Amino acid sequence: MNIKYRVAAAALAAAAVAAAVVPAAMAAPAYKCASSTKDIDDSGYDGPWPDNWKVTVKTCAARSGNTVYAYAEVKWDGTRFREEDDPTIFDGAKLRLQIKLSSEGTDSVVIEGDFTELERRMGNSTSGGNYDGHYRTPTLSHRAGPGALADSVLFLDWHGDGRGYGRHDYTGSPTV
Fold it and tell me: Which of 62, 65, 108, 129 has the greatest CB tally within 10 Å of its CB?
């Protein structure tokens, strides 16, 4: 075999090995999710109209090697009595997403992020004044040993109630 054919054969063999490895390395990790729903009272309003918000949070985690990935999806069904895109519903709204090590007792947090974009999204309505919507957080990732999970906490600060942020804990993901 001459040198030209040997180089071409070697290059072809290397490409075949790389092609076999790359898809497996680039495959998306399989997420495990848990979801829960809470009926949350707008404590800044005590008028005659219904004011509860039904908020569902789905928390997801996945593992790829030693790296754990997490995200959360928030869906809400809010009130219909306010004006369109009312900026005075909340003084603040955020979702805290955490990656934790699962252990006996309290799980230790290895990384967390507060996603404040939720306040703007929850304050937006349809043209009919319907406050329904959804938001997906960006993905957090961190190197973690075995037995990690994701957890979500919703913080709502209703305008005019004088109480500051109220904490609403949601079901964490299964352990990955």
Answer: 62
